[in-house]
Amino acid sequence: MIHAKRALPFFLLLVLLSGCASRQYATSPAVGVETASCSEVFSDWQQRVDAGNHFDAQAWSPPGFPYLRVNRLLASFPVDKLSRPQQQAWLERAHEMAVTAWHHEAASMGNDASAQLPELQRCGQRAMARLLEDDHQWRELAEASQVPDSYNNVARVLGGYPAVAPVVRWRAGVVMNELMDQFEAYHPAHAWRAYEPATPSPVIDPSDLVGRASARSPLGIPVFSDKEREDLLSLYAPTWVVETGGPYDVPGRPGRDTGGELRFQSEPVVFTKVAYTRFDGEVLPQLVYTVWFSRRPSEAAFDIVAGELDGLVWRVTLGRDGRPLIYDAIHPCGCYHTWVLAPDGLKPVGPVDYWEEPLWIAGTAPQTDRGLVVFLSSLTHQLKDAATVLPEDVSKARSYAIEPYDNLRGPSFAGERLFGEDGMVAGTERPERFLLWPTGVPSAGAMRQWGNHATAFVGTRHFDDPWLLQEYFWLPE
C-alpha cells in the first residue's frame, strides 16, 4: 500500500505528460504503401528522425500517412466530399508540406540523410496515386487528417479547470485591459529606434495579384509565385519602432549551439511567411512577420513571465481585394493575442461565451495601402501603437532584412535546431507555467514554432485556426 501511494504521483505525472497529442511520427502501418521496400523507406526514416531531436513539428503527421503533412487549413476542408481535382490538389499540398519537413529533418540529421529524400518522394507519389483510387483508404485519410488541438485536456481535468478558469479569465482581463488602455497612449521611458524594410514597397495591384492567385487552385487557396509572395510581403511589411533601453530590445536571429544552449545574434532581420484563413466561403491570405529579441528581462525580483527569447508576431489578413481586413499580433509563446481593426474591415460579432477568453481589441489602425508603423515597448515588447508615421524624435530608420520563416526550421547559425520535436523552444520556459498548467496550455510562456500557438488560457483557440475570423468577426456591407 505504501509503495502504491509513492507511485501515485509518478503515475499522475505520466498521465499528465501524455495527455497532449504528439505531432511526431506515429507507428501506424503506412496506408497506400504497396511494396515492402517503400514501407522500409518510411520506417527507416522515422526511426532515424525519432532517434534524435530531428522531427519538424510545424504540421501534423497523420497516423498511417507518413508521406503527408496537414496543417489546420488543409484539415478544414471536408476531405471526404472533395471532387477529384480537389482531392489531387489537397494531396499535392499535403505532400509538399511533407517534403519540406523532410528537408529540414535531413538538414538536422546531417551525414547522408538527404540521400534518402528522392526515395521518400518516389514512394510518397506512388502511395498518393493509390489513395486516389481507393475510396476506403481515402475515408481513412479523412479521419486521420484532423489536426489535434494544442491543449492538454488531462491537465485540465487534474488541475480542476472549471474552478481555475474563472480566476484565470479575471486575471487575463486585468493584464490585457491595462495593455489595451496603453495602446496609442504609451509614454516611453527610453528612446525609440526604428527599423524599416530594406526593400522598398513594390508598385503592384494587390487586388489583381490575389485574384489571379486564388484562381490557380481547385481548392480556392491562393497560389503565389515566389515573386508575387515577395511583393505582397514587401508591400505590407511593417516599420518597427522599438523603445530601446538595452541589448534585449535589439532585434536579431535566435539559434542553438551544439551543446544545446540558446544563442542570439543581434541583427536587423524579420522572418516572414504567408498563411491562410477562411471567411465568407473564401480562402484569404495572411502575411506573417516575426521579430525576435534575445530575452524578456525581469521587471521585479520574481517575474513569472521573464526568460530567454521574446518577440512579436504581426499578422495582416488581406481581403479578396488584396487590402487589409484586420491585423492581429501575439508573442511567439502564443500569449497576449491582440487585435487591431482595419478601416472598412472586419468588426467583432459581440461578446464571447463566458467559458472563452474575450477578444482583446486595442483599437483601429489608420487607413493605408502600405505597411503600418508598429510600436513596441522596452523589456516587455508589447504592442503599443499602430500608425502610419514615425515619431517626431526619430529622424531616420535602420533597414531590416526579410527572410523566410522556414529559415528557422533547420540547423541555426549556431549549429543546432532552434525548435524541438514538440514544436517548442527548449530553454525559454517561464515560471508562469507552474501556475497555468491547469489551463491545459503546455509550458505556458515558452516560445513556440508556427502551428503550435494556443492563444487562450480559457477555452480553446489557436492562432492558425482558419475559422477564427468566421467565428468572431463580420464584414459590414
TrEMBL record:
Q: Which residues form the signal peptide?
A: 1-26
- Highest taxon, organism lineage: Bacteria
Q: PROSITE patterns per the record?
A: PROKAR_LIPOPROTEIN
Keywords for this protein: Signal
| Listed name of the protein | Uncharacterized protein
